[in-house]
Amino acid sequence: MEALSVKGSFVSSTETHQPVPAPITLDDLARLGGVSRATASRAINGQPGVRADVRERITRLADHLGFRPNRAARQLASGRSNVVGLVLPSDDLRVDPYAASLSHAVARSAARADLGLMLHVVASEPGRTVAHILRDGLLDGLVISSVAIGHPWVDELLDSSMPAVLIGRHPHRDEFVTVDVENRESSATAVTHLFEQGCRRVGTITGPMSRVDVRQRLDGYRVAHERAGLTVDPSLVIEGDFQRGSGPGAAALLIERGVDGIFVGNDEMAIGAMWACTALSVRVPHDVAIVGFDGTGSGLDTHGEVALTSVVQPFAALASTALDLLADQVAGTLHRRRAHHVEIAPDLSIGASSVRAG
C-alpha cells in the first residue's frame, strides 16, 4: 500500500510544536484505496453499486486512517441530516436518574452510529417546538421517552409523518414502534427473590397507575404471589409517584401493616423507603427486605444504609435498539405507524438490602 504523505502545519511560537496533520479527505481515501472518488463515497455511505470486497477494503481503510465523512456533504448526497432527536420531559431530566441514564445511553449509542443528537425537552411554547422539530431537514427521526406522553405537543409529534420510536409504551394507543424493558416477568423474579429470602408478607410501592410499565410491574408482583401459593393483600399495594419523596410515607404505611418485604417500582422510591426504615429503627434487610427497579441506585450505599437490590434497566441495549428501529423506519423497511414492540430482559442485581443470613 502506498504511504500517505501529508504536509503538517506549524504555529509560529518561541516553543517547539509538532506538526498537526491535515484531516484525511475523501480524495485521499480514494487514491489510497485505488478507486474513484465516487466509488469511495458510495462505499463509505453504504450506497449500492459497489462490490462487496471493494466496500470492505474502503471501509477498513477509512477506519484505519480515522477518516470521517463530512456530515454536510453526506446530507446533500443522501437527503438525510444524520441527526436524531431525543424527547424527554424537562423536569425528569433535571431530577430523575432514570432520565439522565437514558439520555446518556442514547447519546453514546448515537455517537457510535456517527449520528448527531438533539435533545428536546417539554417546552412552554409547544406550537413553536413542534414546528422547529418538524422543519424540513432538521432531523431524520425521534426517540421519545414514554414518560413524555400526555403532553399535547408530544402526541402531535407522534401523529406526524416523522419516523419515531417510543422507549416505553403509550398508555392508550398501540400503533407505534416501541422498545421497552420486560417489566412483568422481571418484577415477578424480584418478588420471588424476596420470598426466597423468607419473606411472606411482601408489599409494593407502585408508580403512577396510569402508566403501562407500572401496571405490568404490578402484574409481576401478583404473578409471584400466585406461584408461591400466596394471596395478595390489597392493603399492601400503595401507589407512589416515582419521586423519592413518595417512598418514606408509603413505606411507613406498609411497615405499620406488618410487611417483611417491599418491592418498589423504582430505585428513587426504594431509597425513600430505606429512609423510612432508618427513621423507624427498622433494620434492612433483617426486619424488612427491599428491592427496587431501574438500577440507578443498584449497588450504591444509599443514605448510609445497605446496598440496594434492584432490577437493572438495560439502558445501553434500549438505546441502541431504539436507534436501529429508527434507522429501519428511515430506510423504509419498518412502517412507523404499525405496531412493532421489542422487549429487552433486565437483570436482577443482588445487594445487601434484600439478602438475609441463612
Terminal-residue CA separation:
66 Å
Order of helices and strands: EEHHHHEHHEHEHEEHEHEHEHEEHEE
| CATH architecture descriptor of the largest domain | 3-Layer(aba) Sandwich
Low-confidence stretches: 1-20, 299-303
Count, helices? 13
> How would you describe the shape?
elongated
What is the number of independent domains? 3
The count of strands amounts to 14
Q: Structural class from helices and strands? A: alpha/beta
- Fourth-level CATH superfamily of the largest domain: Response regulator
CATH fold-level topology of the largest domain: Rossmann fold
Give the rounded overall mean pLDDT: 84
Short description:
The protein is built from 13 helices and 14 strands.
Describe what this molecule looks like in 3D.
It is a single chain. The chain is α/β, with parallel strands linked by helices and about 350 residues long. It folds into three domains: about 10-80, Orthogonal Bundle (434 Repressor (Amino-terminal Domain)), CATH 1.10.260.40; about 85-180 and about 315-345, Rossmann fold (3-Layer(aba) Sandwich), CATH 3.40.50; about 185-315, Response regulator (Rossmann fold). The chain contains 13 helices and 14 strands. It has helices at about 25-35, 35-45, 50-65, 70-80, 90-95, 95-110, 125-135, 150-160, 185-195, 210-225, 245-255, 265-280, 315-330; strands spanning about 10, 20, 85-90, 115-120, 140-145, 165, 175-180, 200-205, 235-240, 260-265, 290-295, 310, 340-345, 345-350. It has a six-stranded parallel beta sheet with strand order 4-3-5-6-7-13, with helices on both faces. Helix 11 packs across helix 12. Residues about 1-20 and about 300-305 have low confidence and may be disordered.
